[in-house]
């Protein structure tokens, strides 16, 4: 395996992993099957509180990561395709999650089709992250990159189009 330079510390990675696992666990506790069949014991605690805190931590860490990459690492690192897909899914989760928070406020509500669409978008984005995680782990074991890869002159990066002139 290659010794790859890193833009973020291992402490950041541990915080990201802990926040993501807490968000997934508390999100699964919201599913009706988890409570009905006793898959996740949540009778003494509300999974919403843990879900809100872990989501807030993920929003903070994501904003921090974007800021660090934008200020320090943009010239040395570029997004991989898998990293771009994960960012798109995380943005979808954040927007749909904020819409669900607004729905829970006392003076506002999403009605019928809009609520179902937002709820399904949140669930689909969350479930679509799992295959990307498995793909990333397989690529990592074979020497691939995760979110970011070092920028080389020969490699093309996601997001920046370097088109060659048409050959005649």
TrEMBL record:
The residues that cross the membrane are 50-71, 83-102, 114-135
| GO BP annotation list | respiratory electron transport chain
Keyword Cell wall biogenesis/degradation annotated: no
| GO CC field | membrane
SUPFAM superfamilies cross-referenced by the UniProt entry: Transmembrane di-heme cytochromes
In terms of InterPro entries, this protein maps to: Di-haem_cyt_TM
Its keywords, alphabetically, are:
Membrane, Transmembrane, Transmembrane helix
Protein name listed in UniProt? FeS-binding protein
